[in-house]
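We modelled the chain as a single entity of 450 amino acids. Its sequence is:
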Amino acid sequence: MSETFDRQEKIYPKRVKGKFRTIKWVLTSVFLGIYFIVPWIKLYGRSAVLFDIPNRKFYIFNIVFWPQEVFYLAILMLLLAMGLFFFTAVAGRLWCGYACPQTVFSDLFAAIERFIEGDRHERMVLDHSPWSLKKISEKIKKHIVWLALSIAVSFTFVAYFVPPIELGRRIVTGHLSSANAFWLFLFTATIYCFCGFFKEMVCLVPCPYGRFQSALCDQDTLIIGFDEKRGEPRGQLKKAASAAKQGDCVDCSLCVQVCPTGIDIRNGLQYECIGCAQCIDTCNLVMKKIGKPEGLIRYGSLNIFSGGATHILRPRVVLYATILIVLISGLFYKVATRTPLEIDVVRNRSSLYQRTSDGKILNIYTLKALNMDQKDHRFMIKVQGMQAKLVVGSNPIQVKGGDVYQTTVSLSIDEKTATKRVNHFSFVIENVDNPKIKARRESTFIAPVM
């Protein structure tokens, strides 16, 4: 940790072209496209994906999740964690190199910096030159674009909680809530600082993933490595007569110059390596130029680089895969069999029971029916588990989509038939148009027993 803080020298990653750089740009475009477009998609007159915290509803396309269904979030968190474990055990830091938001946005910020200030050498010269009108102009332009991008990212983030058109209207009219303003400012500052100034320091210092990856990886995990047997001893390119004992590495240091964290991959596996594969692309370009085969720096396992073979199926991979399959299956099953209906029953607390003039024992309940669907439905209220007369204002009841219907119901039995003081039964509400959709809530009927 101290070594990280001691290194104050700024890193100037060099522009690189190649297969993996192209893959990264494609994935970056896909991820950013999804991120920026999804809040604007409309469904049923509202945002297709909307986390409506004030109304405690989470809309995911045609499904509405309620606070009572928080276990779905728990399953999703376990699924994401286990997915990270699985892919790390199989292929190292794919998440860091290709999908982590810090990597994606930092890549974009770096591309803006190169576009305005130039490639590695031009940026180094600019930073070490005295302040001039040109330097001030380029720095201001860069930070304006960075700030504009940060605001756009922040606006989109908040748009997942407040519809974007509504959020824009609040900003224009000055009616932002304190929560809206707080998150807009915080997320803008976070993106601007983390991706513009801190960059690789976020990966090296606060992010714990690089430090515990050793617990998830083994000798068979796919990593980015340098083939020492082929590359050493490294040295400048020499004529064939004097290069018999020289390795393929010409010690050009381009693999260091393109690394966003500034490490030398030739020194072996390091926690600072985020698996972006830019060193592979630049090394392959050098190998092509000098007529050597590609792959001096490549994806491979520690076993492969030491001359052995990789074993794909191994205990930890099988274990992670099994847990992952179980979690995915469980989540899909729960969503597929999810009943968009909830019922809650509360007994009348003013009295346990009432006697009527015609010799009946009466229990009163407050029943709440939550229609978690987005459409209006009619529901029939029924009683199962005991013979009792059900009295309710209207039956079936009409419940609007996403609404809670509350009504008072009463059950009555003949006092002579009461044989137990506490009688257990269930309230059931059933969709009139689709009887398969039903919800059940157990309750008790209290009767005086002499």
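As a brief sanity check on the tokenised model: Confidence is low (pLDDT under 50) at residues 1-6. The first strand starts at residue 42 and ends at 43.
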